[in-house]
Amino acid sequence: MKGYQEEFIYNLKKYRKERKLTQAQLSELCDVANGTIANIECGLSKPSFDLILTIATVLGIHPALLFSSNPIQSDVSKEIQQHELLLEMYNKLQEYFGK
């Protein structure tokens, strides 16, 4: 099983590439220094909570998807999906930030 940081990095790259954005373009859209996204994707730095929310907004996704290792099942009700994603995000953020 991949660690949370590896899952985050994998998902960040995946959603960034799906939107056809370079690391520099995503950095600009998130209003951070040019190498910030590159450093995060290389595992050299970790994003703040605010940056995670900004990245998700720019990519047009729910922030929990950046930490999710499981694709959302279409036959599961929307309320259950939201609850599970939020719970997963909460647990992963606690571990990711070492709390």
Commentary on this structure:
- With 99 residues, the chain is mainly alpha-helical.
- It is built from 5 helices and no strands.
- It has helices spanning 4-18, 23-29, 36-41, 49-59, 78-96.
- The longest helix is centred in the C-terminal third of the chain and has 19 residues, at 78-96.
- It starts with a helix and ends with a helix.
Q: What fraction strand? A: under 5%
CATH uppermost class: Mainly Alpha
Task: Please name the fourth-level CATH homologous superfamily.
Answer: lambda repressor-like DNA-binding domains
What oligomeric state is this? single chain
Question: What's the quick description here?
Answer:
The chain is an all-alpha fold and 99 residues long. The chain has one domain (4-96): lambda repressor-like DNA-binding domains (434 Repressor (Amino-terminal Domain)).
Task: Set out the fold topology.
Layout: H1 4-18, H2 23-29, H3 36-41, H4 49-59, H5 78-96
Offer a few descriptive terms:
434 Repressor (Amino-terminal Domain), 99 residues, globular, mainly alpha
